[in-house]
Amino acid sequence: MRTILKLYEGWDIELIKAIKKKLSGKVFLITFVLLVSACSGTFFCILKIMPSSYLDTLNRNAEAQSLELLDTLSTYDNLDKCIKAISDFEIQTGSTVWLDDEYGNTLYPSNVTTEQDMVTADSYVTFDGSNTTDENVVSTEKDTKAYQFSLKNGASYTLVVITDLYVVRQSTEVLLSTFPYVIVMVFILSILCALFYSRFITRPVLKLSATSKQMASLDFSGRCDETRSDELGCLAHNLNCLSDSLSHSMLELQEANAQLKTDIEKERELERQRMDFFGAASHELKTPLTVLKGHLSGMLNGVVGYENHSKYLQRSLAVTEKMEVLIRELLYISRIEKNKTSIQFANIDFAELLRTVIAELTDFISEKKLSLHINIPDRVSCPLDRAEMERAIQNILINAIRYSPDGEQVIVTVTETNTIISCSIENTGVKIPETTICHLFEPFYRVDISRNSATGGTGLGLYIVRGILENHNAEYGIKNTENGVCFWLRLPKKQ
């Protein structure tokens, strides 16, 4: 006994000393009062409000479920489906359900044979303080509601739903039985928590120190606790603001560096593409120039085989004409790349533009003995640069006609939605290797090595199409279909 008293006296002395300290004593008292008040208040609120709230919730849920069941039953045309739905409802909700016909006969459950087994609709749960001294005492433990409904065949029935509310009174009794234990535990835990909180008041200081060390090493992930209202809380707030500012500045710097790297890489890629383009262009010009030089040199020097000047002059003229076409396309590419931002958009009838281009290529189509199928609306408008788009569509159609075997089909289809215009140009009888499709829009690229500048054009047609469509913010591509090759594009209706 003396040992216990000594321990009590020692604990009491330590407690008094802690309370006398300015900061720790204040923290102890505030923490203790807050914990006791919060825990006790929460418990009393639960004890006071829970029964009625729980009851209201049960009633609302039962009402909603019952109305949902009525809606379902009203859609049936026979009683068997209704009984099945009622049985499922009982299993899901735990409620008891009776089903009566318009004459008062009980149809469900089938084992009910007497009126004593029925629960009247006057039996319901209330929390009425006038009938008892405790307003939280449940007067009855069942809630019964009756509903009238009719099937599709016109038959009328009465549905009685009984909800068991015994759990409300049971939960209240459980709470009351635990009240003494809760009070004791609240006091014990409040004292212990207050003591520990006051003893370890230096923890925020240590946290501030750790956060400042992180900031010194440019690590701004740490955060200080700002819940305190004293000087430590103010210091924590200032450190957090400083951390946010430094972190934001570092993030902006990183984003700027990343953007700079991206721009540099893009510029390098563009420069590489330019060099590749110029190299390819030089190669494409070098070959006909070599041929032309050979013809002229052979004729001037009287080389054997070049005696027929008329023959080789015609060949030289043909080479010159192809060089002229190539140079014109190179100049056109230079212009569209230079004037990307200066395209003059106007509201153009895309359907009429297609018909115009197709009419210009009618002789070419007839020469190849191709069958042309057109599925184009009467009018479909969108913002375009007419001249540029005509050039793109013309290149696509020429490409489709040129590489279609004789007697095949060219199919042109246009559809529209509220936001885009879709166009597809399909030529049948030929396919493109899947590995080469991704290269088709590259300059001077030809699908087959046999398609050189003599048989397959300059190799710049689809590259020009690419530049024009990108300037129009259009989506485009080429794909193999079941019957051939299809070029597709999607134009926005608003730029």
Give a quick rundown of the structure.
57% of the residues lie in helices and 15% in strands. The chain is an alpha+beta fold and 495 residues long.
Task: Explain how this protein is built.
The chain is an alpha+beta fold. The chain folds into 3 domains: 13-197, 2-Layer Sandwich (Beta-Lactamase), CATH 3.30.450; 215-264, no CATH class; 343-492, 2-Layer Sandwich (Heat Shock Protein 90). The protein has helices spanning 2-20, 22-73, 79-93, 166-199, 203-216, 231-300, 309-338, 350-360, 362-367, 386-402, 434-437, 461-471, and strands at 96-101, 106-108, 142-150, 156-164, 346-349, 371-375, 381-384, 409-416, 420-428, 475-480, 484-492. The strands form 3 sheets. The chain has a 5-stranded mixed β-sheet with strand order 6-8-9-11-10, covered by helices on one side. A hairpin with a 4-residue loop joins strand 1 and strand 2 (106-108). Helix 5 runs parallel beside helix 6 (231-300) and helix 6 (231-300) runs antiparallel to helix 7. The chain is flat and about 125 Å long.
Uncertain regions spanning at least 5 consecutive residues: 3-9, 113-140, 449-455
CATH architecture of the largest domain: 2-Layer Sandwich
End-to-end gap: 92 Å
User: How many beta-strand runs?
Assistant: 11
- What about the largest sheet? 5 strands, mixed
Order of helices and strands: HHHEEEEHHHHEHHEEHEEHHEE
- Helix amount: 55-70%
**Count of folded domains:** 3
| Spatial order of strands in the largest sheet | 6-8-9-11-10
List the helices and strands and how they pair.
Blueprint lengths: L1 H19 L1 H52 L5 H15 L2 E6 L4 E3 L33 E9 L5 E9 L1 H34 L3 H14 L14 H70 L8 H30 L7 E4 H11 L1 H6 L3 E5 L5 E4 L1 H17 L6 E8 L3 E9 L5 H4 L23 H11 L3 E6 L3 E9 L3
Parallel strand pairs: 6-8
Antiparallel strand pairs: 1-2, 1-4, 3-4, 5-7, 8-9, 9-11, 10-11
Helix pairs in contact: 1-2, 2-3, 2-4, 5-6, 6-7, 7-12, 8-10, 10-12
